[in-house]
Design brief:
The protein has 300 residues and is of the alpha/beta class. It has a domain of 136 residues: 3-Layer(aba) Sandwich (Collagenase (Catalytic Domain)), CATH 3.40.390. The protein contains 5 helices and 8 strands. The N terminus is likely disordered.
């Protein structure tokens, strides 16, 4: 007997099952091609499932590797940013300064009174005779009252002047002794007005500036004793030597004045140097350092 035909419904199911079975191998062969195509197209993760079956996790593509290189880490702290210190500008070296010399204090101005009492105080002093030969001449020293000058001090200074090695006494022109009484002559120091009055008694006009020699001795103008002379190249203390040597020169017999012996030469002590040097060099002593007598032409 011939086979019975299957019911229509069952045939339809079998046909469908067989149809799937025939397509199955084709689909399994086409899968690798499909995967390769997907990877080629950049869709490596496109197939997450196939026909409802999960794929193996190992087949799923991993995350893409990054090409950036990470900086190695270290436990050391990051260095602090340093701020460059500005290079100091070198200060210019101070120029050496020369200490300026302190100005010398101005000498105290000496005030000389124009006139005085007209009376005198005698120095109460005495000394040994000085000199190497000749007549002994005793002298006393008087200072006008009311002026700031010690009679005793003035007497001591005059004694030193007469005992100087370039003076008269050192060269045999007389011996001199300071006494307070019984004097052969007197040396008076007086204000300009008083000096003028004493000199005028001998007929000498001293104009308040000059010294003179009188019948009883020597008159010294206080102005010249304290201030010196504007024509004399030296201190007042040196000019005092010239005053005493000049006036005592008259006392020992040298009555005339002398002039300048020549330009650049020392002026004689018997020259009136306050009236001008006429080319000579000012000088306070009768004798030079070599012991020679300083002389010049007679003028009066």
């Amino acid at each position: 007997m011939g086979k019975r035909a299957a019911p229509a419904g069952r045939r339809g199911k079998q046909s469908r099952r067989r149809g799937r079975g025939r397509r199955g191998p084709v689909s399994r062969l086409a899968l690798p091609a499909l995967v390769l195509m997907t990877v080629a197209l950049g869709g490596g993760a496109a197939l997450a499932h196939f026909n409802g079956t999960a794929t193996d996790d190992s087949a799923a593509p991993g995350p893409q590797a990054t090409t950036a290189t990470e900086a190695p880490t270290t436990d050391a702290p990051a260095p602090r940013p340093t701020t460059a210190k500005p290079t100091p500008t070198p200060k210019p070296k101070p120029k050496p300064t020369t200490a300026k010399p302190k100005p010398k204090p101005s000498p105290k101005k000496t005030t000389v009174p124009q006139s005085g009492a007209g009376t005198f105080t005698t120095a109460q002093a005495s000394g040994d005779a000085v000199g190497t030969g000749g007549s002994l001449r005793r002298y006393r020293v008087q200072v006008e009252d009311g002026i700031e000058l010690s009679a005793h001090g003035a007497a001591a200074e005059i004694q030193q002047i007469l005992d100087h090695p370039r003076s008269w006494a050192a060269h045999g022109r007389g011996r001199f002794q300071l006494v307070s009484q019984n004097a052969d002559f007197v040396i008076r120091i007086a204000t300009p007005d008083t000096a003028d009055a004493l000199c005028l008694q001998q007929g000498l006009n001293t104009h308040g500036e000059l010294n003179c020699e009188t019948a009883d001795g020597v008159v010294v103008n206080l102005k010249r004793w304290m201030l010196g002379s504007p024509t004399f190249a030296g201190e007042a203390v040196e000019y005092r030597h010239l005053i005493i040597n000049h006036e005592v020169g008259h006392e020992i017999g040298i009555r005339q004045h002398m002039g300048c012996p020549g330009p650049g030469k020392l002026a004689p002590a018997m020259m009136q140097q306050i009236k001008g040097l006429n080319g000579c060099r000012s000088n306070a002593f009768p004798y030079a350092e070599d012991g020679s007598y300083i002389t010049g032409p007679i003028v009066s």
